[in-house]
Amino acid sequence: MTCSKVRTSLSAMNDSRLCEPERASVVQHLTDCTDCARHEREIRFVSSALRDVTPRRPPIDLTYRLRVIASHERARMIAGSSWLSTIRFRLNQILRPLAVPATGGFFSSLLFFAMLAPNFTVHANTTDDVPVGLYTKVSIVNPSPFAFDGQDIMVELTIDENGSVSDYSVPGGKLTKDEMRAVGNFLVFTSFKAATAFGQPVTSKMLLNISHIDVGS
Amino acid sequence: MDIGLLLNQNSNLSAEDESLLAGLRAGCEDSYEALIQRYQTPVYNLALRLLGDTGDACDVVQEVFLKVFRGVNHFRGQSTVKTWIYRIAVNEAHNRRRWLFRHRPNSVGLEEAGTDAQMHERPIEDAGPSPFQMAFNSERQALIEQALTEINPTFREALVLREMEDCSYEEIAEILQISLGTVKSRILRGREALRKQLAGRVEPAPSFGWAPSR
User: CB-CB: which of A47, A70, A77 is closest to B163?
Assistant: First the structure.
């Protein structure tokens, strides 16, 4: 095998592309020829030197530019497919940047409210509440401060929704003029609380027994 | 016969490539990101070795990815995705080189190629070699890269694909659209050319084979 033939085979041998008989011939020649052996070492060095070259890292801005290109091309491809995909893509483009701020805002406001909630106190006004039972009876709030002059008497009162006596009558019989005046005076200075139905004041009747109590002498 | 069935029968794609292409055709964002992550660095390095300039390499990478994104629906899977992308990259680098050949003589750079910035971008490993070894390797790498840019671009393409991108002869034949015999010839001549280039700049050293000449 000539040196020229061997040197054209060295590259292929370096890549293991020679058949076995040819390779054996080349190897045999290399053991005999120092020039070709040196040539072979140099070819091997060139190959290994190229393989040892460190790959360069692409510039950072190239990655961003490629992503922008990818985004545009993707949008173009989606726009060409169907209107539903286009709408979905556009919505995604609009809403995605808001997703993180909106979620963060929601959870931070929730946390803030949870921290402040124990400090809020509600004072319920339970003193003058309107009874909400089905029905409450009429009652006397303040009886007349003046004594009743006369005999014991039973009167039927009609109390309107304002707690005022709108009418009265004596079931037991007729009264004299003085007795009428005494009962009237007594009722004028007596205040009533109107009966209620479902929490609303209503007109109602009550029987009132007016007695004369003498605590003197 | 269904054209999809015909394409599948002729397909050389791996399951991974099939999945990637399906995602790209469906407009899946993750697939676009995966494609960029997987091929950005190899394509950039390929373009850089073929052109010898970082700015030109970046332009070529953008063109390559633009063509890949736009051509994904027309890709029929008769080669692997890697081969397809590398073929586009080699063609784009070739076009760029022709354009530069016509226009570059009229342009004047403000400074020499920004090697400082490139040096900062190189990863430095913690358990790395000594400063001397680093300086030696850096100088040797610069010499090899410089020598590589000075050999015939036709041979350089084949050599870079073989040695730096670890492509097989068959893949190189597909990428460059040439026969296996031509691949073998170009690699041989590329190595010879590079050997001669380096022989003028480095001298043999007992421990390293060759060392940069002083």
Answer: A47
How crowded is the C-beta side of A85, counted as CA atoms within 13 Å? 12
Q: What are the tokens at A151?
A: 């005999």
Q: How does pLDDT run across A149-203, given as a tens digit for each residue? A: 767 888 889 999 888 888 888 887 777 888 888 888 888 888 898 988 888 889 9
- Chain B residues inside the 8 Å CB shell of A8: 188
Residue of A nearest to B195 (CA): A46
Strands (E), chain A: 135-136, 139-142, 153-159, 165-169, 191-193, 195-197, 200-202, 204-210
Distance in angstroms (rounded) separating the CA atoms of residues A159 and A216: 33
ipTM of the complex model: 0.73
Q: Round to whole Å and give the CA distance between B204 and B210.
A: 4
**B191 → closest Cβ in A11, A41, A51:** A11
For residues B152 and A178, give the distance between their C-alpha atoms in angstroms, rounded to a whole number.
142
Q: Answer yes or no: are the C-beta atoms of A57 and B122 closer than 8 Å.
A: yes
State pLDDT tens for residues B79-116: 899 999 999 999 999 999 888 888 765 555 555 545 55
**């009533």: which residue's tokens?**
A192
Listed by number, the residues of chain A in 51-70 with a beta carbon closer than 8 Å to a beta carbon of chain B are: 51-59, 62-63, 65-67, 69-70
Structure tokens belonging to residue A98: 């808001």
Q: Could you give the CA distance from residue B72 to residue B93 in angstroms, rounded to a whole number?
A: 20
- pLDDT single digits (tens) A97-134: 899 999 999 999 999 999 988 887 766 665 666 656 67
Contacts of B142 (CB under 8 A, 6+ apart): B115
Q: Contact at 8 Å (CB) between B20 and B34?
A: yes
Please name every residue paired with A156 in a beta bridge, in sequence order, or none if there are none.
Answer: A169, A207
Q: Give tens-digit pLDDT for A190-210.
A: 889 898 888 888 999 988 888
Tokens for A114, please give them: 């949870």
Query: How many Å apart are CA B82 and CA B171, to the nearest integer?
Result: 9
Q: Which two tokens stand for residue A194?
A: 């109107």
CA distance B188 to chain A (A): 5
